[in-house]
Amino acid sequence: MKLGFDIDSFREVGEALVRNKSRSFLTGFGIFWGLFMLLALVGGGQGLKSIVMSEFEGFSNNAVVLSPSNTSKPYKGFQEGRSWNLTVNDITRLKNLMPELDAVTGMVGRWSTPVTCGDNEFKNSSLKGITAEYIKIETPQMKYGRYINEADVIQERKVCVIGKDVYNTLFPNGGDPCGQYICVGSIYMTIVGVDFNSGNLGINGTPSRSVMIPLSVARKIYNYGNLVDILCCTVKPGIKASSLESKFRQTLSRYHYYSPDDSEALICINTEQIFNIADTLFRGINFLIWLVGIGTLIAGAVGVSNIMMVSVKERTTEIGIRRAIGALPGEILWQIISESIALTVLAGSISIVISVMILQVVEGAVKAPFQISFRTAVTAMMLLAVLGTLAGLAPAFRAMKIKPVEAMSEE
Amino acid sequence: MIIELKNIHKTYGGAQPLHVLKGIDLSIDEGEFVTIRGASGAGKSTLLNILGILDTYDEGEYWLAGNLIKGLSEREAAHYRNRMIGFVFQSFNLISFKTAVENVELPLYYQGVSHRRRRELAMEYLDKLGLKEWAGHYPNEMSGGQKQRVAIARALITHPNIILADEPTGALDSVTSQEVMKLMKRLSVEEKVTLIVITHDLHVAAEAPRCIHLRDGLIVE
Lengths: 411, 221
Hints:
Chain A is an alpha+beta fold and about 400 residues long. Chain A is about 50% helix and about 20% strand. In chain A, strand 3 (about 100-115) and strand 4 form a beta hairpin.
């Protein structure tokens, strides 16, 4: 019995496919399109995900931001609807009372602060008064100089770290600006560092448009006294930030006289939630991609199966002749399955090549990883071989059942 | 004794069962040239199909070269057909998308003969039948006589013990019929093949030293 892929069976399969070019082409196109959709969607989804995820770049995924809000319950003689503020003392309190926390820092944020250097002006910077620990919440990518340190905060030095966009506007000629003075709001400060983080997620404004100064300096300039706008914390590894929410409320309620079970008085935002939303979203998208892609692919395979069925019907005589002159049933079975596999794999390979080329072009244009991995391509290839075999099975069994006598009498 | 039939019965099932062969006894010697004649419906084709192991029989015994042909698997049947029997059909039954030489070498393909050897043998046989120049032509580029000669070459190439021909001249004009029959006769002698031909044609039947007449599923020699 002749099974397997020798040169002769290749010739036989080739002949069968070439004999009916347009039919082979259209059938192959079903597979081609199915796989192309799948790969284009997989590549596209992955590229989009990485684009969206780059927005979160440098931002801690276990940070919690605490912000005061009007109380919603009367408590200890205070009426509901009272407004209150966080203070610098809360930083120490949280550090002492909540061992789950890693870094705790306060922040003073002033939006739309103009920054000038000579004739160059950056109008809408986000001024952030921070402590050295803030480095753990938004990781900077220092291009020049250093970040704000503890000494800056303690000694109330008038120093600043500027973001990428601010730097590019104020120093169009480039170069290291450290040591130069710029006017932040109405106060001159020394630049100590430049942060090139280009993520789009940040507290009180994106990093690239920020000017960071020591918290103590910001509080003095803007008359905050011992108040801060918000508190930012990171949670120690292994602890879920979302599980600490009620503990934050209770801890701070003792000092600010709001009800410990007032869910509105303290706004708790944890970045874990944001990451989870994005993550769930992309998992959903991914699922849809595979659903649609594989669905299209299967539709293509059913097409192949259908066409092979018609083809077998049409070739009853030919198959009968082959059987009469000595072909074994298994050889006929294998021939039809090989044709199906050849058609599927051929169309599929072309599809893989074209999708890879298109994704490469997109990748070059958008500068995000759109290309499918080699593993995906190999998986797709194997999927095709399996689909081809399955698609060929039913027609092949029908072909195998053809009796030589029937074939002869059909003439 | 290459073929020995003992009391062969064949009934086609269905709503009204049709008893086609009603006890055929027949012996054919090696190298014999036999024609089978009979009105349509007499069971000629059924007999030929049974002889060619294309169909099964219900009762009796069929011995082919000392082997009892009964209850064979598809595999065994295919093997006997491939090695011992050559077919020539009224409608030629060439594969239309294969050239003459490819058609001729097809039985060898299923024997697993190498490509080069197949081509050599096929060309040799086409040459014997005077079709060497037509080797590269497709069936639809050839005349009926040529097609039938290609079919004969295909039947002979495996050196079969018997050649079964079902109305081999049915689709040919009388002159070509004569030619084809003469050719088959000559080749059967040359190749020492037993030749069994079904025919209506009295001229064709006259070529054969032995003529079997079938009537209503029985032999009336």
